[in-house]
Structure formats: C-alpha cells, structure tokens
C-alpha cells in the first residue's frame, strides 16, 4: 500500500498527500483526478500485477526444477511469449489477439522444451533446464530476425516494448484476476509443492501424483508469463531474485512463499516503475532497465552471501 501511494503521488507532477486524499474522497481539481485516476492508478496496478505474475512464475519454476536459478526467461517461456506478441504486432493486430498470441507462444515453448527434454526417456530437472536455456537462445534469435525485417516506423516501439514498458498498461483487471486466482490455487497445492520440492521420487512415495502436478506447474507458469509479457513486455530478474530472497528470509514452505512472492514481486515492480518515471522526468526509462540494474547486483550479493 505504501508503494502504491508513492507511485500515484510521485512523477513529473507531484501530488501532495492532501490533494491525494481529496481525490480519494471524489473531490480535488480536474488535473489531479486525471493524473491519479486515469493515468497513475491503472499503471501502478498493472505494474503490481506484472511483478506478482513474474515472481509467482519464477517461484513455481524453481519448485518444479528444484533449482534456484530457474526462471521463465531462462527457460524460454518469455521468449516464446515475446515472439507471439511481436508476430501479432507485425500483423497489425492488437488487444486480445496480442494476449492470445503471447500465451500461444509461451505454451508452444512449453511443449517444445518438455518434448525435447523428454527425448526417448524421462526428463530430469537439469536436462529440462539446459533445454530451456537452448530454446530461450533460439527465441532470442527469432526476435532479432523479426526486428531486422520489421518496418522502420514500428521498430522503436517494438524495441521499447521488449525492454519493458508500462506506458500503455491501463487495463490491469485481467492480470490482477489471474494473479489472485493462482494465489488461491497455491493454498490447496501447497503441501504437494512442498513435497515435490524434495524430489519426484520422494513425492511419488508419499502419494503425490507427480506428472500431472508438474504439467500443472508448467502450464500455470506459461499463463503467468504470457500475461506479464503481454501487459508490460519483457522484464527480467523479478522472477529470479524475488523468490530467491524470500526463501532466504522465510524458508521453503510454498504456502507462505507463493503469496509472499505475489506481494513482493508486485511491490518491487511498482517501485521500479516509479523510479523509471521520475529519474529523468518528464522522459521515461524502460522499467526492464531498472529491474536489471537492481536485480544483477542483488543476485550477485545473494550468491556471495550463500557461499
């Protein structure tokens, strides 16, 4: 709540707490109401939803692979979603079609990674992780190719979107509903996820139906990533750093970690977007640049601390 209040108060035009209170009561001048209700509140809610979605997807992937370095971007989910969304943009489509294309790309990447990692036998977490890294590199090459053949007038917008852009994220309803739904789903699945984090064999011995649960995790992570990429473009390090930090602070109980990831990831991206809007105001920086500048040293410090 403090991060949201800061996000709607700070910007190229600052709004005092008294003026913000007047707007909350339905009063205040027209400029303050427009800034708060039509521009900053939808953008802040979109940032919160996107950060929560990315942190949840990262936490689920780390449980699935039992590897703290697992992340939707490392495993190619975001690359597939980005290719789907960019293809829709190149075709001149918009709105729900871009969202559907992003989810289709993420789900295609899911099937591709699982299929290649499975091969003729059963996949292992390390094999799936390596396959995801290779597929992510392939999606990166496809994105580069699409940018190279794109019309010149569309290129700046596509590049800015790929770096993470919340300028046009004014419909936070669907991402927030998905975020809330997955958080509610995490409670009944929390015990099974805790057991799965100890290994597939131990989970199977304790009565967990492992393979359907693994597919549920991967498809859910695909949905979360596609929704986040559609809302704000490619934003890295949120799904990697936030779950890792929370596990060091709170332990490994997924019934606690997953809702905490939703709150912490959303708060982090709200603060990062506020910084991106204000650091060189009235110009704006891509929020993905801010998360990378914050995430890289933070993660290196965490690795140093856990030697």
Automatic annotation (TrEMBL):
Entry keyword Transmembrane: yes
Recorded coiled-coil stretches: none
Membrane topology: Multi-pass membrane protein
Protein's cellular compartments: Cell membrane
InterPro entries: ABC_BtuC-like, ABC_transptr_permease_BtuC
Keyword annotations of the record: Cell membrane, Membrane, Transmembrane, Transmembrane helix, Transport
Chief place where the protein resides: membrane
Residue ranges of the TM segments: 44-65, 72-91, 97-116, 128-149, 169-188, 195-213, 219-244, 256-279, 285-304
Top-level division of the source organism's lineage: Bacteria
UniProt keyword Oxidoreductase, yes or no: no
Cited CDD domains: TM_ABC_iron-siderophores_like
GO molecular function, one term: transmembrane transporter activity
GO cellular component, one term: plasma membrane
Gene3D superfamilies associated with the record: ABC transporter involved in vitamin B12 uptake, BtuC
Family: Belongs to the binding-protein-dependent transport system permease family. FecCD subfamily.
Protein name per UniProt: Iron ABC transporter permease
Organism: Billgrantia tianxiuensis
């Amino acid at each position: 709540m403090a991060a949201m209040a800061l996000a709607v108060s700070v910007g190229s035009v600052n709004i005092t707490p008294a003026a913000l209170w007047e707007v909350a009561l339905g009063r205040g001048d027209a400029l303050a109401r427009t800034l708060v209700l039509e521009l900053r509140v939808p953008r802040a809610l979109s940032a919160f939803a996107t950060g929560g979605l990315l942190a949840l997807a990262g936490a689920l992937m780390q449980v699935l692979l039992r590897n703290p370095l697992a992340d939707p971007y490392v495993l190619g989910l975001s690359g597939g979603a980005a290719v789907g969304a960019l293809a829709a943009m190149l075709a001149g489509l918009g709105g729900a079609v871009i969202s559907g294309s992003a989810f289709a790309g993420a789900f295609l990447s899911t099937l591709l990674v699982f299929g290649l990692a499975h091969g003729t036998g059963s996949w292992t977490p390390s094999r799936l992780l390596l396959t995801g890294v290779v597929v992510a590199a392939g999606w990166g090459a496809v994105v580069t190719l699409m940018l190279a053949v794109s019309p010149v007038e569309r290129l700046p917008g596509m590049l800015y979107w790929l770096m993470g852009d919340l300028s046009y994220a004014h419909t936070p309803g669907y991402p927030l509903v998905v975020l809330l739904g997955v958080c509610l789903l995490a409670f009944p699945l929390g015990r099974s996820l805790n057991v799965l984090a100890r290994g597939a064999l131990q989970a199977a011995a304790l009565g967990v139906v492992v393979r359907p649960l693994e597919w549920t995790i991967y498809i859910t992570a695909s949905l979360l990533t596609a929704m986040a990429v559609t809302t704000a473009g490619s934003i890295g390090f949120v799904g990697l750093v936030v779950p890792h930090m929370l596990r060091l602070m709170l332990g490994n109980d997924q019934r606690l970690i997953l809702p905490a990831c939703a709150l912490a990831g959303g708060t982090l991206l709200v603060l990062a977007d506020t910084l991106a809007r204000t650091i060189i105001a009235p110009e704006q920086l891509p929020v993905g640049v801010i998360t990378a500048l914050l995430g890289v040293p933070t993660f290196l410090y965490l690795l140093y601390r856990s030697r």
